[in-house]
C-alpha cells in the first residue's frame, strides 16, 4: 500500500511540475479556452483540423496567437479555414512579427467587415481567386475561365460551334480579331493561333452601363482562342463572377440578366471546345 501511495505521490508531483512549466511557458489558458468554447462549430473545426501545424511554431508565436484567439472567433469560417491551411507559414516569421500581426488584427477585421455589405457569394469568389493566385502567381490565370479544345476538335470547328451557339442563344457576334494573322502579316513569320471573338447583348450592356459607367470596361464579352506553346489550343474568357458577385449586390433584374449572359458565355466556351454545333 505504501508503495502505491508513493507512486501516486510521484505522479502528482510530475503533474504539478508539468502544469507549472506549461503555465510559465504559455501563461494561463483559461481565457483562451473560454474564447475557443464560444466559437462557431465551423470555426472550431477549421482550427482543430490544422492543429498539427502548430507544432512547427515557436512557443512565443503560439502564445501571441492564443492571446488573440478571441479575434479568430470573429472571423468568417471560410476565411479562417484559408488562414489555418497556411498556418505552417507562420513558422518562418519572427515571433515579434506574428505578435504585430495579431495586434493589428482589429484593423484587418474592420476591413473584412466590409464584406458584410457585399453580395453573399463575394467571400467565396475572392477566396477562390486568392487560392488560384497563390498557386500560380499570375493575376490573369486567377481571373479567367479556360477550356481546352477536346481531342479531334480543330480551331475552325470550335469557331463554327461558338458562333452557332451564340446565334442559337440570341447573343450577337460583334466582331473577330485575327491577331495571329495580323502579326504574321507585320513580321513575315508564322505565329501560333491567337484570335479574339466578341459577343454582346446590347440591351444588357446598356443596363450595366446605366448602373455604373465603369462596367463599360467589361464590354463586349470576349473569348480568346490561343494556341499554347505546347501546341494545344484553349479558349479563355474573363471570369464574370467577380463582376456579378464581387461587390455590393446588383439590382435583382440586372443581376438576373448578368447571370444569363454568364451562362451564355459558358455555353459558347464549353460547346465550342467540344465542337458541339
From TrEMBL:
It comes from the Bacteria. Transmembrane segments: none annotated. Residues 179-239 form the DUF302 domain. InterPro entries: DUF302 (IPR005180), TT1751-like_sf (IPR035923). This is DUF302 domain-containing protein.
